[in-house]
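BUG: 3D viewer hangs when loading the predicted structure for this chain

Environment: internal workstation, default settings.
Expected: structure renders.
Actual: progress bar stalls at 90%.

Input used:
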Amino acid sequence: MNSFQGYLLRTTLTVLFAIHYSLFTTSAQTSDSLIVRQMRELGVRFTDDNKVRLIMSGRDKFELMFEDIRNARQSVHLEYFNFRNDSIASLLFDILREKCKEGVEVRAMFDGFGNDSNNQPLKKHHLEKLRADGINIIEFDPIRFPWVNHIWPRDHRKIVVIDGKIAYTGGMNVADYYVVGSELVGEWRDMHCRLEGPVVNDLQTIFARMWRRNTGEDLSASKYYQGVPAGHKMIGIINREPRVMNQYMQKFYIQAIDDARDSIKIINAYMTLTPASWKALKRAIDRGVKVEIMVSQKYDVKLTPDVVLRNVHKLMKRGASVWLYQPGFHHSKIMMVDGRFCTVGSANLDARGLRFDFEENALIIDRETTLELDAMFERDKQKSNQLTDEEWERIRTPWQKFRGWFGSLLTPLI
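Structure tokens produced before the viewer hung:
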């Protein structure tokens, strides 16, 4: 063997060993370690020493959050898709007025489309009264003629930060129906979480950036960033901002689904699915991952549920287990992977949530929290009908099936 042949053999063996080692180490990694590495490479910051409290009802959310706001000493920051002009929002604003009298800085923002699209919006005179009482409240991108210019992007995030120490985030806006339900859909289910620890600083950073974008006011002072070690859970914040962090949310969901080894559980209100998320779920099913999906049979909007039900039926035909929640509308946006990590946030698995709007999800790398959500999923299955071919034919008329097909042509927009 001449020197060149020897060199070629050594090089080939080195490459083969590197490929073998890479495949071995990747397969040996667990889904939680994989998603952390992948998201860090994308630019997501993870912090340890956080505390998480899952909130599984509107009543619990508002009771906890209102008590924390009552105890605020320095600042209260709120970013919501909308504040519905009803008794819950009225109580919140009364508490905020009292805090203003005590010298607490109160800043609040809401989305113009989110406000105008709900059936009890805040009007101009409501805002003027709130500002006169010391509440600094602003509207992001008000809807103005020509309205089509304001369709995208919208601020769909739900963030509250109190004294820079406590944060709330998840899928709930501020509205009575999270507590009492609605005539249209009955019970209104959703998920939220209360956070303490360094992760609070990350949520404050998101709020401060959005606030500065809209007002020019700088909120970089250290008094707004008081998140200190409070527990033992690792959390990363997946933040989506148009033209800044365009692909973060979609890449997170795709990577998380692709990383799954054993199981994926999803509850998501508007699963119209982008092509990339659709393909990721098909890949998971095809490689033997147990995929369970829960959606509602009752909805608050038209057309979208036809697309959702069409999508989950197709996934069921491929091998997923699908559950149709019966007591009301499950508005939650959660996912659990392999019992190892989970996400709670504002992003729907649709084009708006993954490709257009401002969104934010907490990625929680913790088995205890994930298993708590798994247990909730199992309880909610007892209140749901499993989708089968027979159930599909029973609940869907030919016209509804056609609407689902037609609506699927619009999924890049809805």
